[in-house]
What we know:
Order of helices and strands: EEEHEEHEEEHEHHEHEHEHEHH
CATH class: Alpha Beta
Distance between the termini: 17 Å
Radius of gyration: 20 Å
Structural class: alpha/beta
Oligomer: single chain
Amino acid sequence: MAYSHLFQPLTLRGLTxxxxxxxxxxxxxxxxxxxxxxxxxxxxxxxxxxxxxxxxLAEASGVTPAGRISPGDLGLWSDDQVSAFSRIADFVxxxxxxxxxxxxxxxxxxxASTYHALPGYPDGSLASEDGAWExxxxxxxxxxxxxxxxxxxxxDILETAQAFADAARRAVQAGVDTVQIHAAHGYLxxxxxxxxxxxxxxxxxxxxxxxxxxxxxxxxxxxxxxLPDEMPLLLRVSAVDWKEExxxxxxxxxxxxxxxxxxxFVRQAGELGVxxxxxxxxxxxxxxxxxxxxxxxxEFAAHIRKETGIVTSAVGVITDPTQAEHIVASGQxxxxxxxxxxxxxxxxxxxxxRELRQDIESPGQFYRAAR
Length: 371
């Protein structure tokens, strides 16, 4: 049996992941009207647990009703939502051969109150007759053609930070092994971090990174306080917003400021108790200059890992087991988050183990597949 870096365990505080193939949170837009997970989520997330992945992360779950991307988003703003998440956590723990379960906590900011991103739905902001709600953001500047948000007051900011903490407490009650804070993809926390979006003139924004980090760091501080000491806290960031194409000298210079600021944010997040950061990109610009391709974001993960010393996971067009092995073996990241390829093949981790000549435990019901 060959040695594989991808199939080595990874320990984060009191949690040891059995391998380094993780499931990226992927919105399904299929929640019940009150943000409660349904049988779809049990089957969807359960398939990854039985498919050999070490960590299954549920999709972006709104910490407030206004923080949902769409009416079909999951939520953790109410104690009434806890038991449905517990059902999924129990399934993962009972059938995942040591798999762990987590929930991504999110607020969509000015990109909230949109239609489900599914076939058959319109694009853009909800119409009032379809249940549109008021959105919140650092300023009242809209995202592209979306409806304009309301600029958050200081009370809004502090109440939202507490909503993240309350959602984290509910996640713990649901039996999760970890939570991930969503500070990427142009949603609320990322909006506060981006200078081009957060043009406030108070202590929560403007030119100074210290001000623009204040709210996201306060969220991290409050969420960390709600988690047991042995439970790791995860974070997702967008390293750059693709102001220009990265593959040219001019493009790198245009994005260097983003990368430097996000790297500093991650460093301070680590000091507050973040244990692993998933490094993605983009989301704040309606028309980013990005050309996705295999491993197009791993350079950012490598940079942040080197500069901060924090455990990182790489994500974005990671499809091939050999590619994933190389990312981990070469030190670009400590783990890989698999998204769309896992939708195509929920047993991707099984396939990776076979190709990399690794033993992997599977549910007894699947014993014929091992023959």
